[in-house]
Amino acid sequence: MTDPTTGRLRVNGASLHYEVRGEGPLLLLIAGGSGGAASFDGVAGDLAAHHTVATYDPRGMSRSTLDDPGAEQRVAEHADDALRMLDLLSPGEPARVFGASSGAIVSLHLLTTHPERVGRVVAHEPPVVEVLPDAADHRALIARVRETFKTEGPMRAVAVFAAGLKKDGAAIEPPAEIELPPQAAARAEQTMAGLPYFIGRIVPGFMSYAPDVDRLAALSDRLVLACGHDSRGELPYRPAAFLAERLGIELVHFPGGHTGLTTHPAEFCELLLKTLRA
Predict the structure, then answer these.
(1) Cα dist. 61→17, 117, 140, 232 in Å?
(2) Which of 76-90, 103-117, 175-189 has the lowest mean pLDDT?
(3) How much is the pLDDT for 189?
(4) Ranked by mean pLDDT, which of 143-147, 190-194, 200-204, 252-256 comes out on top?
(5) Whole-number Å distance between alpha carbons of 129 and 238
(6) Is residue 254 a contact partner of residue 271, using CB atoms and an 8 Å limit?
(7) In this predicted structure, what is the pLDDT of residue 1?
(8) Residues 261, 124: Cα–Cα separation, whole Å
(9) I need a labelling partner for 111 at 20 to 30 A (CA). Which of 41, 84, 126, 224 fits?
(10) How many Å apart are CA 196 and CA 81, to the nearest integer?
(11) 54 has which bridge partners?
(12) How far is CA 17 from CA 24, 60, 131, in A?
C-alpha cells in the first residue's frame, strides 16, 4: 500500500492534519473516539482502490492543534471542519461520508446543514442519546462523567463512561497487557494520549447534541444508519436503531461491535463499499 499524501488545513480556531489516498469520487472518513485518522489505517488502503479516501485528525486530536487548547467543543464547528475538507478535496461535487461514533454525529450535522455537499452518509452508532425516550438518564451519566473528571481525573472518568455504555452498566476490567505490533502499539498510544481531551471535551459537548430529526427524515434517501452486530443492548446502538425506526429506513448491521472497524477491518470494509454503492 502506498503512503498517503498528507497536508494541513487551516480552519476556524484550529489546524487540521489530513491524509489522502487513492483516486475516484471522494470518501471522507470521520473518526470517533480519540484515535483520529489512524483509526482507519486498517481499511483506508482497500477503500482507496475505489475512492479518493480522505481521513483527518479531528480538531484537538493527535496532530490537529487548537489555537485555544481550553476551547469548548461543539458539533457544529466539527461539522464545519468536515465541510472545509469537502470544499478542499471535492469542490463543487457531492461526496460520500462515513462517520464512526462521535464522528457519526458530525456526519449527521453535516448532512442536515449542507445536504448539497453530501451524496451519501453512513453513520455508524452515533450516540445521539437526546433522541431517546430516556434521554434524562443519559444526561445524568454525562453529569457523572464530568464530575468524576473534575474530582478523580480522566482515567476514572473513562471507566465511568465506559460502564454507562455497556448492556448492564457493569464495571470495566482493565485488559490484560499484550505485546502489539509497532504500528498498532503507536495507534494505541495515540488513543490513550487523546483520552483526557475526548472524555473532558468531546463527550459532554457531543452527547448533549440533538439532531434535527425532521430534516433527517427529509434527507433519509441519502442516510444509512448503521450499528455493530455485537452492540445490541449497548447504549451506542440504541439511538441509531431508534432513528432508523422513526425514519422508516433499514438499520444496517456491520461486523463486530462499536469498534468493528478495528476488530473486523476486512469484513467492515467490504460491507461499507457495498453500502456506499447501494
Answers:
(1) 9, 25, 26, 29
(2) 175-189
(3) 60
(4) 252-256
(5) 8
(6) yes
(7) 57
(8) 10
(9) 41
(10) 21
(11) 20, 28
(12) 21, 10, 32
* Euclidean distance between CA atoms 140 and 101, whole angstroms: 20
The contacts of residue 137 (CB under 8 Å, 6+ apart) are none
Determine how many CB atoms are found less than 10 A away from the CB of residue 217: 14
Decide: 58 and 31 in contact? Cβ < 8 Å: yes
Count of Cβ atoms closer than 10 Å to residue 248 Cβ: 8
Give CA–CA dist 11/58, Å, rounded.
11
At 4, phi and psi to the nearest 5?
-70, 155
Nine cell digits for residue 211: 439532531
User: Could you tell me the pTM of the whole model?
Assistant: 0.91
Which one is the CATH code of 5-131+209-277: 1.10.3720.10, 3.40.50.1820, 3.10.180.10, 3.30.2310.40? 3.40.50.1820
The angle that helices 75-89 and 102-113 make with each other, rounded to 10 degrees, is 70
| Distance of alpha carbon 262 from alpha carbon 39, whole angstroms | 7
Q: What is the 3-state secondary structure (H, E, C) of the chain?
A: CCCCEEEEEEECCEEEEEEEECCCCEEEEECCCCCHHHHHHHHHHHHCCCCEEEEECCCCCCCCEECCCCCCCCHHHHHHHHHHHHHHHCCCCCEEEEEECHHHHHHHHHHHHCHHHEEEEEEECCCCHHHCCCHHHHHHHHHHHHHHHHHHCHHHHHHHHHHHHCCCCCCCCCCCCCCCCHHHHHHHHHHHHHHHHHHHHHHHHHCCCCCCHHHHHHCHHHEEEEEEHHHCCCCCHHHHHHHHHHHCCCEEEECCCCCHHHHCHHHHHHHHHHHHHC
| Nearest Cα residue to 197 out of 39, 81, 68, 111 | 68
